[in-house]
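Design request, tokens follow.
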């Protein structure tokens, strides 16, 4: 019905001048079209009659040059499956290898047509896992400060200072209201005293770059007791995973 109404409207538009005697400009204003559109439908009516008033498809009748061939299609799918390239990289490789330029939208349509627009993630499964741990107790201890914590109905800060053996997982912790170097050394001394009656000094102490562990007091204690000082890199707490998970 809509098609017949459009054809009837265009037919009335062309014969409006003969029926009313108005100018073409007035007729175009009345129908809300331009003079160019009026002459287009008038010429089509003169050439083909009433059939010329129907809509004509805008697709071209002949394509002189077809870009997409079977070889290019195989190249696109091969780059997608083997290299897992996206549309932009495939477009760059086609221009470099084949010497043809396709839009990323055309490449995406090809991948979607073959169900390759979304690829499944390939999970990397490690065959062997290397566990980071010392072979013997007292080889190395890890130290860290956790907090601050706030008790109920109190605004005072509290901290937990911990010292953990990397091999045996033996821990010494203390609840402290401050996190000075003296408080850290007290926890380390508690760990030494509880370990074999004070005879089990650690060979190495691993810690982060907090001020409590880089102070002169802490360094002097380690040097005096012949303990090696080992810092972890900045923004990499994974090296202290055992004490971080405590």
């Amino acid at each position: 019905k809509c098609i017949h109404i459009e054809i009837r409207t265009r037919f009335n538009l062309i014969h409006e001048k003969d029926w009313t005697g108005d100018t073409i400009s007035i007729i175009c204003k009345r129908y809300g079209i331009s003079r160019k559109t009026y002459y287009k439908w008038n010429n089509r009516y003169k050439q083909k009659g009433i059939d010329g008033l129907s809509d004509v498809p805008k697709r071209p009748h002949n394509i002189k040059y077809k870009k997409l061939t079977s070889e290019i299609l195989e190249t696109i799918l091969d780059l997608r499956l083997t290299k897992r390239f996206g549309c932009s990289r495939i477009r760059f490789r086609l221009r470099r290898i084949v010497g043809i330029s396709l839009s990323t939208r055309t490449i995406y349509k090809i991948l979607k047509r073959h169900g390759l627009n979304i690829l499944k993630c390939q999970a990397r499964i490690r065959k062997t896992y290397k566990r980071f741990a010392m072979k013997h107790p007292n080889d190395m201890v890890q130290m860290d400060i956790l907090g601050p914590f706030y008790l109920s109905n109190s605004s005072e800060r509290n901290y937990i200072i911990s010292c953990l053996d990397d091999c045996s997982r033996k821990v010494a912790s203390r609840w402290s209201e401050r996190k000075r170097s003296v408080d850290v050394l007290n926890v380390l001394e508690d760990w030494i005293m509880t370990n074999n009656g004070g005879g089990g000094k650690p060979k190495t102490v691993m810690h982060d770059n907090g001020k409590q562990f880089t102070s002169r007091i802490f360094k002097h204690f380690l040097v005096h007791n012949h303990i090696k000082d080992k810092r972890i890199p900045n923004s990499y707490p994974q090296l202290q995973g055992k004490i971080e998970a405590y």
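Comment from the thread starter after seeing the answer: thanks! The first strand starts at residue 141 and ends at 149.
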